[in-house]
Amino acid sequence: MTSESKKELLGKVFEMKDLVEYQDGTVASRMVINNKAGSITIFSFDKDEGLSEHTAPYDAVVMILDGECEVWVAGETHAMREGQTIIFPANAPHALSATSRFKMALIMIRGREESP
After folding, report:
1. Tell me, what CATH number does 41's domain have?
2. Are strands 50-54 and 85-88 parallel, antiparallel or unpaired?
3. Is 10 helix (H, G, I), strand (E, B) or coil?
C-alpha cells in the first residue's frame, strides 16, 4: 500500500467492504495498514475461489464483510456469513472457500502474548 493510498483513508469514515471490488474468477485485495505490529487487508473472492490450507506464525482475525464462505481451522468446518468473525490461532492450519461472492477483512497481529 502506498503512503498516498493510506493517507486517503486517515481520519475518514468508510465501509471496509467498499475498499475492494469483486473481480470475476479471482481474488482481489487491498492492504489498508501494514507495519511491524500487524496488518489489515481487505479481500474479495468470486464464488468458488478461496485460499488453500496454510498456517501463519501469528493470530489472524477474519471478519466477513459481505457474502458467505466456508472456513476450515484445525480440522473444523464453519459456514460463515456477513457480520461474523473468527480468530485463527497462530500455527493452526486453516483455509477458506467462497460459497458465494464474499469479502473479508484479515487482521494479522504479529506480536506474541507475554506469559504471566
Report:
1. 2.60.120.10
2. unpaired
3. coil
Q: Which residue has the cell 479481500?
A: 43
Q: What is the pLDDT of residues 50-103, one digit of tens each?
A: 999 999 998 999 999 999 999 999 989 999 999 999 999 999 999 999 999 999
When divided into structural domains, the chain yields a total of 1
Report if residue 49 sits inside a domain: yes
Long-range contacts of 15-21 (CB under 8 A, 24+ apart): 16/42, 16/63, 16/65, 16/103, 16/105, 17/42, 17/65, 17/66, 17/103, 20/44, 20/103
Residue 39 lies in a domain: yes
Query: What DSSP assignment string belongs to 46-65?
Result: -TT-EEEEE--SS-EEEEEE
> Which residues span the domain enclosing 97?
31-109
**Alpha carbon distance 97, 102 (integer Å):** 9
